[in-house]
Design a protein that fits this description.
218 residues; mainly beta; 0% helix
Length: 218
């Protein structure tokens, strides 16, 4: 069971990711359709998600030890449907690190701070994430790990991505606790770890398509 609202922390939304300068990329999230359904209750939520903009800067490269560190900042505007829109702009700041390991394996770790309005006042939350990754020679990426949500829940999740050519990426996502069932349909979406304000156990499944433009990094 989930209440009639999606938590504004991290929503799966469509993304256009553009490399606009060396080591700098911009992510634009246009309006996209989001639907949340449950087999017992039918469609719980549907409509347009919020628009957001974010930038990520790769500011540290330790090539000897295969360590990359980035900082990101973003803003989400309350432009979505009433049940899905945040009540006020949501601001975010993120530190992301990755450690390359032999044979295509790696570790990714992140800490995300979000400032948003809740119950008439603004609050700030921190969400750490830890992922193990594998990147094949054919540009197939699989990532598995967990994110610590502001409500204290720690849902495991797995995401698989396949790059088609240079500018199209297909993504599949599962996140949840192994019982209950919630399906999310998000047309043309680049999935982030999905946060639902849940009561009890929930599973989330998603598929998405991302458009990659320009080039950033070496």
């Amino acid at each position: 069971m989930i209440p009639a609202k999606v938590n504004a922390e991290l929503q799966p939304q469509s993304s256009i990711i553009a490399g606009i300068a060396p080591y700098l990329e911009l992510a634009i999230v246009p309006p996209s359709y989001l639907q949340v359904t449950n087999p017992k209750q039918g469609t719980l939520l549907s409509g347009d998600a919020d628009v957001s903009f974010s930038a990520q800067w790769l500011f540290s490269r330790d090539l000897k030890n295969h360590i990359l560190t980035s900082i990101g900042a973003g803003v989400e505007f309350p432009t979505g449907s009433p049940a899905l829109a945040a009540p006020a702009p949501v601001y975010s700041l993120q530190m992301i690190g990755s450690k390359g390991l032999p044979d295509g394996f790696g570790l990714t770790y992140a800490l995300t701070a979000k400032n948003f309005q809740q119950d008439g006042s603004r609050t700030t939350t921190l969400s750490p994430t830890l992922l193990g990754t594998y990147l094949s020679p054919g540009s197939f990426l699989i990532a598995a790990g967990a994110i610590v949500l502001p409500n204290g829940k720690i849902p495991p999740f797995v995401q698989a991505s396949q790059l088609l050519g240079r500018h199209v990426q297909v993504n599949l996502l599962y996140a949840g606790f192994g019982s209950g069932l919630v399906n999310i349909t998000n047309v043309g979406a680049q999935f982030l770890p999905t946060t639902l304000d849940v009561n009890g156990s929930t599973n989330v499944f998603g598929a998405s398509l991302a458009l990659l433009l320009g080039r950033s990094g070496p």
